[in-house]
Structures are given as C-alpha cells and as structure tokens.
Amino acid sequence: MTLTAKGPLVVSTPGELRQLVQGCEVALVPTMGYLHEGHAALIRAARAAVPDGRVVVSVFVNPMQFGPNEDLSRYPRDLERDLRVAGHAGADVVFHPQVSTMYPEGFSTSVTVSGVSEPLDGAARPGHFTGVATVVLKLLNMVRPDVALFGEKDWQQLAVIRRMVRDLNVPVEVRGVPTIRAASGLALSSRNSYLTADQQARAAVLSAALRAVQGAFAAGERRREALEEAGRVVLASEPDLSVDYLSVVGGDMQEREKVENDPMNRVLVAARLSGVRLIDNMALIAPEGPE
Ligand code: PAF
User: Could you give the percent of the chain with pLDDT greater than 90?
Assistant: First the structure.
C-alpha cells in the first residue's frame, strides 16, 4: 500500500492502518465524519504537529456514545465529502472502520472515567462519555499516535479524554484546538446540518449568552450565580430554546461559588433548538490576566 498525491488513502481495518503508519510520527484526529471547517482546523493542526509524519483522520459514527433515544440513525454521513475535506486539510489516511470491526461479537469491555464525566453532559446523556472514552482508547491503541487532537467545542469530552490518558498512562500527547465559529458566532458542528438557515441564525443565541457571561466576568463579576444569570437572560430571548444547562465550572467540571481568574474556568451551555441539541463553551479570563 502506498500513499498517493490524489488524496487520503482510505482503510477500514487496524492491520492496513498499522502498515501505513509503522515507523512514522503520527497525529490522529478522531471524528464522527460529516467534516466541516472545525474538523479542517484540527487536521491542519495535526499536519503542523507532524510535518514529515502521517496524519490519520478516523471517521466512525460510534454507536456506543449514543443513548437509545438519540440521533444515531440519522447522524449525517458523507464519506466522499469527508475525503475531500480531509485531503484538502492535509490528511494522509482516513480510517473508516465498520461497526463490526470496532465492536466484534462478544465485545464486553468499557472505559468509565469518573469525576469529570459525571456532571453536565454526563448527567444529561447517561453512558455517553463511557462510549466516547472506550472508542477513543480503542482508536489510540489501533493508531498509536504521538499526538491526538480534539476540538475544544467538546470541552467536557476533552477533559474526560485527558483524564483517561493520564490515568491509564496512554503514551500520547492530547491537544485541544480552539472552536471554529460561523460569522454569527454559532460554533461549527456536524449537527448544525439538522437546522435550517433561519434556525442556525437563531442558534447563535448560545454563543451570545456565553459572551454575556464573559462580559460580566471581564467587568469584575465573580459570583457564579450572577455570572450564570447574565447568560440565562440572553438564552431566554429565544422562545424556541430549551436549556439543559448553562454552568460555570473549573477544570474538574465542578462549580465553585466564587469564580477565580483561572484559565481552566469555562462557561458551558447545552440547549435544544427545535429539538436539536447544541453545546458550546467559552473561557473566562479577565483582561488584566491572573489575579
Ligand atoms: O467528538 C467526536 O466527534 C467524538 O465524540 C469522537 C471523539 C470522535 C469519539 O467518537
């Protein structure tokens, strides 16, 4: 098997993958496909991390991280488009396994990260982060990358993966890549494709709410309740929105009554617009720097 100039090579088994990356420096970008500019930014960062190595993008809609009433069957899929986006952004290999390759008959192991995976999305989507941690560990074991890149849009997911990698001594460097946003402020997500253009415009209320919290923090507010209220007022301006949570948390995903000026502090939001669940988050950093 050789790499061609025509675009990324698509492989579907761990054996083929190992042949392509053996002896190379490797960067992995795990995705569920339907790639957009946010994924392209991850792939470009991967390319920059291993300029002479191999960039592997996995495209796998992982059934284990979807709850029984979630959108697994309708999750958007378009491999042709994924290959174009991945190739343009600098990927060498796209790993596109079958469900039966990842979860063969008899599969009975899962990875549960306690603590950081429990509040917020962990509470709203029981089992979700166990599905994420399990598939990510499998991908890391199959690809054995030097570096793995994840979007900061899924901030709690990034915290869960970092915890798992530390706790299980997985020999990989985990890097977070900043969220890419539409001009409206809406964080790019494959699930935005469920929304009409008008709904996407209205979904920008999530980022507006986060900016309101950032503004209150920058203006000196340090009480968590007051910060969260600044965001909730903005969310309330969109009648079609049903809010799961808007929470200010530290790096451990726990709330504190007084929010210090710490780069790990974030405000996270999850809400449904016309039934589509969206998440977003932003850092809370005061303009004058750490206190
Ligand atoms: O962020 C995602 O797209 C997924 O949760 C991931 C990390 C690829 C695991 O399936």
Answer: 94
Shared domain for 165 and 199, answered yes or no, is: no
- Alpha carbon distance 153, 151 (integer Å): 5
Distance CA 211, CA 204 (A): 11
Instruction: Indicate the length of the chain as a whole number.
Output: 291
Amino acid identity, position 64: M
Residues 26-81: pLDDT tens digits? 999 999 999 999 999 999 999 999 999 999 999 999 999 999 999 999 999 999 99
What whole-number distance in Å separates Cα of residue 28 and Cα of residue 22? 14
**By the 8 A CB rule, do 43 and 86 touch?**
yes
> Could you tell me the residue range of the domain that residue 210 belongs to?
190-283
Q: Which residues lie closer than 8 Å to 61 by C-beta, 6 or more apart? A: 32, 33, 72, 75, 77
204: Cβ below 6 Å to ligand 1?
Answer: no
Return the ligand 1 atom nearest residue 62 CA.
10
Please tell me the distance from the alpha carbon of residue 51 to that of residue 156, in angstroms, as a whole number.
Answer: 29
Atom of ligand 1 lying closest to residue 154 CA: 1
Radius of gyration of the chain (CA): 19
pLDDT tens digits, 176-187: 999 999 999 999
39 is catalytic: yes
Q: At what angle do helices 79-89 and 37-49 cross, to 10 degrees?
A: 40
Task: Give nearest CA residue, ligand 1 atom 9.
Answer: 132
CA of 163 to the centre of ligand 1 (A): 16
Q: Which residue, 177, 211, 244, sits at the end of a domain?
A: 177
Domain CATH number, residue 155: 3.40.50.620
Residue 135 beta carbon below 6 angstroms from any ligand 1 atom: yes
